Amino acid sequence: MAKQLIKGNTAVAEAAIRAGLQAYFGYPITPQTELLEHLSARMPELGRAFVQAESELGAINMVYGAACTGQRVMTSSSSPGVSLMMEGLSYIAGTEVPVVLVDVVRGGPGLGNIAPAQGDYNQIVHGGGHGDYRMIVLAPASVQEAVDLTALAFDLAEKYRTIACIMLDGSIGQMMEPAELPPMQPLKTEIPDWAVRGAVGGEKRVLTSINLDPPAQEVMNLRLMTRWQEIEANEVRYKEYFIEDYFIEDAEYVIVGFGTAGRIALSAVRAAREKGIKVGLLRPITVAPFPKDVLEKLTDQVKAFLVVEMNSGQMLEDVRLIVRGRKPVEFFGRMGGVVPFPDEVLTEIHRLVEGPLTTEGHPRDRWLARLAETLE
Amino acid sequence: MALTDVPTKLIYERPEVLDPRVTHYCPGCTHGVAHRLVAEVLEEMGEVENTIGVASVGCSVFAYNYFNIDFVEAAHGRAPAMATGIKRVYPEKTVFTYQGDGDLASIGMGEIVGAASRGEKITVIFLNNANYGMTGGQMAPTTLPGQKTTSSPTGRDVERQGYPIQTAELLATLQGSAYVVRRSLHNSREVRRAKQAIRTAFEVQRHNVGLSIVELLSTCPTNWKMTPVEARDWIEERMLPVYPLGDFKVSSAVADLEI
Q: Does domain B22-147+161-251 have CATH number 3.40.50.970?
């Protein structure tokens, strides 16, 4: 199929349909709304389920119900709406039913604004809902990648009976780019054995997240965590920008950034390379499971890391857990819906090269101290 | 009574769809009666193998243990949303929620109003016992003025704590509600009427008319601190004036149904 110029939100919606989306439930919120709008037209046209819910609470619980039937189901929202969905996500995780969630992240906290941000990282990657659970989190950096990851999200959610979240920065959701959509896949015809369908022949299925017996609940928690280990072993995805063009595998400095921040950092890396600075980029595509092994390998190789995010350094903590003070880590972030320019990142690269570098203290404190100088 | 007086002909037995086990419900509680009525209706309609139930949070949280049908368990108040999700995937299946008054009329009011306004083809069995039973008898939106509960120890003061919600009357105002009635489980005559209403509610769903809901006034002797007999009388004397029995919405399409 040929490429077409298409908006990120619309592309994800259409990619979901082509991946066999059977039922969608959502609620309007900027900057996600085109996703819901596209599906409101396409799903009924195809004889599939679409409901605009009374709230995000309603939407996630409709998704929960539909997921119990074993069909491919999805909801989408943006940051404040996703906060409302956290209750349902915990129940879905506890019931072990597959769901795809799209979070088109905007500036916060609170009502915030509708500009692109990455402030949902902690809520999405490190929980948000109550109890012990994880979800797979995919962070695309382009419309094409968002399309590709949508199909993957459904496959992963089903394979591991878990939630797969596409964490789409508002910028990717709102941006129009050329992208190639996959061909239409047929709808699933097989229903998994665990799914409710009516107790034919007295064979009854009950899907619940309640377990009043603590040891039994612990077993259930262990099952979730064992499955997460399996996900960590098999599903890590990332992109290293070292070997394309002049980015030979010689990086002395590595920027770590996901989604839009990673993409902007790439422009800065290219500019720095032109100046002869040996810098590369690691862009996690799965921020959960986090690409620990490659970061571990890079820790041996490089002089220092720079983490770039559109938040106050949330993924930064995951990077520091791997690097563990063995190499200097610096941080640069913009918040509240402000998108950094490549030049700003380039300035940070120069600062990294010029030094002094330290493994002492916390990179966020140094970043805030530099901001204080700027603000004075 | 001499042994010869024992009838030899079986005239009434446990519906097969009800699991033969002891329930966790308190003595004198009418949840068991409501379960039985739903079970009998589903069997009589031949819908047992075609039904998916949605349990709620409250005393009936373990309803799925007693019915031999497929069940899911919703978060507090969200059963109508979950039922919507299932019904939209399986329009040909019978989907019902079983909810109490704290679940449906307090935390879940948004979900039930949304489902009713959309005219979801689901059936709602709604038990109103004027308090939060499972957590130990706190004030619910349905608690009567002056009624003492563990969170309104001097009696519900409407100036500070508001007024009871008449759920059936409220939901009857929505166009998507096809069948909205209130019945009671406090005596055998009303139990029979309740069963008829439950049957009609499931027929409404079978004929794809719209949302059907049966509100059932129920006893809670434990939290009301009464004997089962006193609890029955309390429904008659105290609840009926606030929650009159009746049909609050029977859409013309429902009236035309031949049941």
A: yes
